[in-house]
Amino acid sequence: MRDRGLWVVPLAGMPEVRPGDDLARLLLEAVGRAGLALADGDVLAVTSKVVAKAEGRLVPLPEDPAGRERTLQEAVAAETARVVARRGRLVIAETRHGLVGANALVDASNAGGDRLVLLPADPDASAARLRAGLAALDGHDVAVVVTDTLGRPWRLGQTDVAVGLAGMGALDDWRGRSDGDGRPLPVTEVAVADEVAAAADLVKGKASRVPAALLRGVPHPEGDGRARDLVRPPAEDLFRTAGTAEDLLAFLEGAPPPDGFRPDPVDPDALARAVAAAGAVPLPGGQRFRAVPVPAAARTAGLAALSPTPPVLATAPALLACCLAPAAGRAGRPAGEDAAGAELAAGGAVRTLVLGLHALGVGTVFEPAGPADRAAAVAAALGLDPGWRPLGLLAAGHPGSRPGFFSG
Length: 408
Description:
Structural class: alpha+beta
Helix content: 25-40%
């Protein structure tokens, strides 16, 4: 079929998908309505929304506007592993899958107006189950690409990309081959799974309620890949907006922090959500970011070890020690590139924590631990476990007289 080019056929007429529906059967029926039958080597591109609906990944929305906004914010926070950027109500966030998009790809479009649709919990596993279901019903060897819509840095407009994959490689690796002039290609990898998703979007449309397309003639890269293979590792991401913990102060430059906190405590659930999001930021060498409350008995000693510190730290209802913790089962700090990479990524984790608290209306003041000897003094004052390195102390609370950029 490849000598006849590429066919991309919309699969129209599918009913509204509900939790528990047999999506493989619905897709196979749609193929029949299009006057086709599956063949080995075909690729089915299916929007993540119908996959999520079939899997029950739905969040009901209350009727009142304030409740709807609160539910959206809570859903986005729960799906967020790292806040990449924020402007007003818009949040660009990284999900646990490594995908970066608006509102952590939580979506309300084509959802009936009374619910939110989340990404499938594991889109690659969803694609594998759907592929197995099609094989059981029809017997043919087809690939499945689960798609979703993303914007792209430095480019206007959105396009569909692969968020789940089964039955083919994600990348066609041209490294080591030659171009038409015989010159070696040292870095070229073709994202075929993303190209499938974009091609399918040309016939599915955004408002036509066509959730799937059949592609015939797609050159399959070798292997049984996953969409996760398309996510660039953090260590190779030159544009990651992280920095060292000390760099966080430069990020705050020109925006004064709160000059005081009200005495009322911070909601422990809000604090826990922000800490969990920061703790999910991946660090090289297996290290972990941890933000632990400073007990009242250790607060004076911890602040003294950081002296001089802004007076506002002593008045904060919550004081957290932001730390690098060793990988489970290991002692001490990694060396070389892993250590440097962990410091860099940890700055991003602190930033994620600060932005997460800001989104929940909590103001913050961060004081970095600084050089190794100062950090060691803070660790001793706080009684941290061996191998834990404090990055600094984060004061959190509801701003008093002068809210700043991170004060809600």
